[in-house]
Amino acid sequence: MNSIALTIDGRPVKAAPGTTVLEAAATLGINIPTLCYLKDVNELGSCRICMVDVKGARTLQAACVTPVAEGMEVATSTPRTLRARRTNLELILSDHPQECLTCIRNQNCELQALAEAMGLRESPYEGKMSCHPEDWSTPSLARNPAKCVLCRRCVSVCQKVQGVHAIQTMERGFDTVVAPAFHLPLGEVACVLCGQCSLVCPTGAIHERSQVEEVWAALADPGRHVVVQTAPATRVSLGEEFGMVPGSIVTGKLVAALRRLGFDRVFDTDFTADLTIMEEGYELIRRLKEGGALPLFTSCSPGWIKFVEHFYPKLLPNLSTCKSPQQMFGALAKTYYADKAGIPPDRVYVVSIMPCTAKKFEAVRPEMNVGGTRDVDAVLTTRELGRMLREAGVDFAALPEEDYDRPFGISTGAAAIFGATGGVMEAALRTAYEVVTGKALGNLNIETVRGLEGIKEVSIDLDGLTLKAAVAHGLGNARRLVELVARGETDYHFIEIMCCPGGCIGGGGQSIPTDAEIRQRRMDAIYTVDERMTIRKSHENPAVLTLYEEFLGEPLGLRSHELLHTHYQPRSLYPGRRESK
Amino acid sequence: MSQSACCQGAALSEILTDDQRNALDAIIAEHRNSPADLISVLHEAQELVGYLPQEVQVRVAEGLGVPISEVYGVVTFYSLFATRPRGKFKISLCNGTACYVRGAPRVLDRLERELGVKPGDTSADGLFSLDVVRCLGACGLGPVMTVNADVHARLKPDRLGGLLDGYRRTEGQ
Ligand code: SF4
Ligand code: SF4
Ligand code: FES
């Protein structure tokens, strides 16, 4: 490969053609400040925070969009660049509410960090402040355009990565605002509530809708029996809320932390992930044998469900009728568990710890209830749990490793990998193979469905039947795959879709920052969790088997149908329209 | 500057005549699934309807295969597009630096009171729409405004009432 030679701050560096000055500088350990830049997603050069001096150029250049050139001489920290960066930041701050102390992103805000790094001590520009209403129309996310710096990262993620196009820059000049069409609230347009926008927003302009207060209140209520479940992906990310390196496995500390907060029982969504494999696996086998819409799509990801409801309602019959593991857990906690523990179901309060903002929406879907009681009462994202623990003064790093409570704390490695793209497929195949063929699977690791490739394929021989399957993550990839299916160009039997890039480990409720490298580390950690488990196949989970024996009967049985399965509804694609086409 | 679109959720049949609707469908049909034609289609649609109500934008989005957020983004970015019905007389007040210094804010204030509208809106009788625009290029004559093709220079707030009445009279004839 021919490389390009240049100097940055007098130091020679070689870089591949197409590399930006920003990236080349980083290899020398020089971190040029950025604001609007988001690698591979938002490279617009619009905020002008990353200004550098390029010898011979008439004006300062934006490092994030300037490609390296042979013989280029770049100076990053000259009086001129520093002044320009400061001025640009001051101008941005002149239309930003100075409410850092009460902001949800206090101490985790890129604008605040820039102001600190640049040593700003005053905001010299005064002027008109933009005034746009806050938007609290969804149970998952809230928007506060007053805090928006118009970096457009959220717009790019929503368009390019998710292919949803729910938000866009509207109007022009000083009136420019990032909003849904017609300035409608987010809850009235085709937004899937994935929260990827909240994950990339450098400020507090789009953020999760916190339920921390509700959970504190429930914990303080002696009349309530508060149980908590933890999603697979949260055990490899919560550590980051406390400064641990991405990919730290904190399962035991997570359990201990939740006990310190006062939860009566600490259970695991992994348990119902195993259960999902049983129900969904049998659903697949039934559709294969007795007919039914194929391919069967997985249904654990609520953003993906909402996406199908808005954009591909014709494919609703292809969605698995299985509730997600979160909802299965809630339904069982208020029936089987309550009964076993001798607690009246209406006293049981179910909290979920999720990597996901769409889970908050899923929990309040009207059909997600048992006899009128909601399956799940409150959903906290990884970020909210981090805040709660900091508020309670829990010294996370010093916590011991503790075990989940029984019986809903018993799980397998197959459940853990639900947290990463390809994981549900791998778990399902481990079980399907053994259940259908009656033979033991030699190598449990199904590598072809692992990793960050956008769309993955696998086929597996089930004693004469070749099961063809595919996996996609990130709704942009999902749409590409679904288009093929909709045009009848594929012969897949089973398709796993996770709404967020990387799967739940990259979920919209995860720790900020979440980037490609951090996703990879969390993913590696998830597979380590799997390897360390004694049992690695869902159908061998003893607690799941007992549950069937004592309560459910058999997969797809009457009780399962009532508690663990659900239905979907078409939603409109256009504001003011009842249905989409 | 339209904070909320006009005719939200109204069916196309309530806004357009049958002829207009057929013509709109014909325009869209010509550009079906051609996202690149968005601006010209919006332009034609506006020529036809006079403005771009929400349902027209939705129809264009659907026909061209462009997300509705993008259609609305384009409509609100270009000042040539209107999301509300325009008045018979379109007032454009210059807000360039020279006009501003020479008293455009006071002119605007008076126009708002006389017409009972804010910039971007149309008066209740449907006669006047008011817009504030960037420099019209007649800086020596400021404050300046145009009413359709007429240019009015060296505006004085006190004379605006008479000026508007003149237009009201031509309408009466
Ligand atoms: S939640 Fe997802 S779909 Fe909705 S605006 Fe944000 S990125 Fe787009
Ligand atoms: S909402 Fe956040 S991510 Fe989106 S443009 Fe504004 S500051 Fe950037
Ligand atoms: S980070 Fe380079 S212009 Fe915004």
Furnish the topology, listing elements before pairings.
The complex is a heterodimer of chains A (581) and B (173).
Chain A: E1 4-8, E2 11-15, H1 21-27, E3 51-54, E4 61-62, E5 73-75, H2 79-93, H3 110-117, E6 141-143, H4 153-161, E7 168-170, E8 177-179, H5 196-200, E9 206-208, H6 212-220, E10 225-230, H7 251-261, E11 265-268, H8 269-290, E12 296-297, H9 302-311, H10 325-341, E13 348-354, H11 358-364, E14 369-370, E15 373-374, E16 378-381, H12 382-391, H13 413-416, H14 423-437, E17 455-462, E18 465-473, H15 475-486, E19 494-498, H16 516-532, H17 542-552, H18 558-564
Parallel strand pairs in A: 1-5, 10-11, 10-13, 12-19, 13-16, 18-19
Antiparallel strand pairs in A: 1-2, 3-4, 3-5, 6-9, 7-8, 14-15, 17-18
Chain B: H1 12-15, H2 18-30, H3 38-49, H4 54-64, H5 68-77, E1 89-94, H6 97-101, H7 104-115, E2 128-133, E3 145-147, E4 150-152, H8 160-172
Parallel strand pairs in B: 1-2
Antiparallel strand pairs in B: 1-3, 3-4
The complex binds iron/sulfur cluster (2 copies) and FE2/S2 (inorganic) cluster.
